[in-house]
Amino acid sequence: MQARSVAVLTGAGVSAESGIPTFRDNNGLWRQFRAEQLATPEAFARDPELIWKWYDWRREVVAAAQPNPGHLALAEMERRIPQFTLITQNVDDLHERAGSRNVLHLHGSIFTQRCLQCSRESTGPRPQQCECGGKLRPGVVWFGEALPPGVWHAAEEAVRHSDLLLVIGTSGVVYPAAGLARLGKRVVEINATPTALSDQMDETLEGPSGEILPRLIA
């Protein structure tokens, strides 16, 4: 790989190769719950205990998972390329555990919680309530919510200034994240199956990212 400035957008397919369930595949979480039951502010207002039980279970699943060869290849790519930004729609920490350092989490982190009263964020084990006495919610972006403006601006700038954008393991239907593909000078998709973005790509590499990415850096 000759590019000196690379941006990468990863989606749920990358984490799925580590055994983390996705929302949209045939074995995904949509089979048990509809999105509006779990991943919206309204759902949390209706039944915060149900939502926290679901997120506590998801945290356990993520904690038990391990970075796969695709995660490790991206971390190695960052070490080799002078300007490298990894933008992820995933809320897990597998990229960081693989060794990636310059990571932008568009949809937040499953390991953080945010106070509904003072907006303070905290990480680690979930306390019963915030220090201010306010109620805590998961520190992720739910359907109908805006992305963190600072993170989104940094992602746009990284893509615009990159020589190459790799779009990996994302369905291409979740916006505004999917819109980043239109900003890249040269865009290459890596995915196990064709996606909503495939027709827009300069090149598509079909297959698991855990197999293709290690070959790219070999």
Task: Record the SSE blueprint.
Elements: E1 5-10, H1 12-16, H2 35-38, H3 41-46, H4 48-64, H5 69-80, E2 83-88, H6 94-98, E3 103-105, E4 108-115, E5 121-123, E6 136-140, H7 149-160, E7 164-168, E8 187-191, E9 203-206, H8 209-217
Parallel strand pairs: 1-2, 1-7, 2-3, 7-8, 8-9
Antiparallel strand pairs: 4-5, 4-6
Helix pairs in contact: 5-8
CATH classification, class level: Alpha Beta
Tell me the overall shape: globular
CATH superfamily: TPP-binding domain
Helix count, DSSP H or I runs of 4 or more residues = 8
Beta strands, count = 9
Q: What CATH architecture label applies?
A: 3-Layer(aba) Sandwich
> Sheet bearing the most strands, described?
6 strands, parallel
Physical arrangement of strands within the biggest beta sheet:
3-2-1-7-8-9
Mean pLDDT: 92
Q: Over the alpha carbons, how many angstroms does the gyration radius reach? A: 17 Å
Q: How far is the first residue's CA from the last residue's CA?
A: 9 Å
**Strand composition percent:** 15-25%
Features:
218 residues; Rossmann fold; six-stranded parallel sheet; three-stranded antiparallel sheet; 9 strands
Brief digest:
This protein has eight helices and nine strands.
Commentary on this structure:
By secondary structure, the chain is an alpha/beta fold. The chain has one domain: Rossmann fold, CATH 3.40.50. The chain is built from eight helices and nine strands. The strands form two sheets. A six-stranded parallel beta sheet has the order 3-2-1-7-8-9, with helices on both faces. Helix 5 packs parallel to helix 8. The longest helix has 17 residues. The protein is globular. It starts with a strand and ends with a helix. The model has no long low-confidence stretch (mean pLDDT 92).
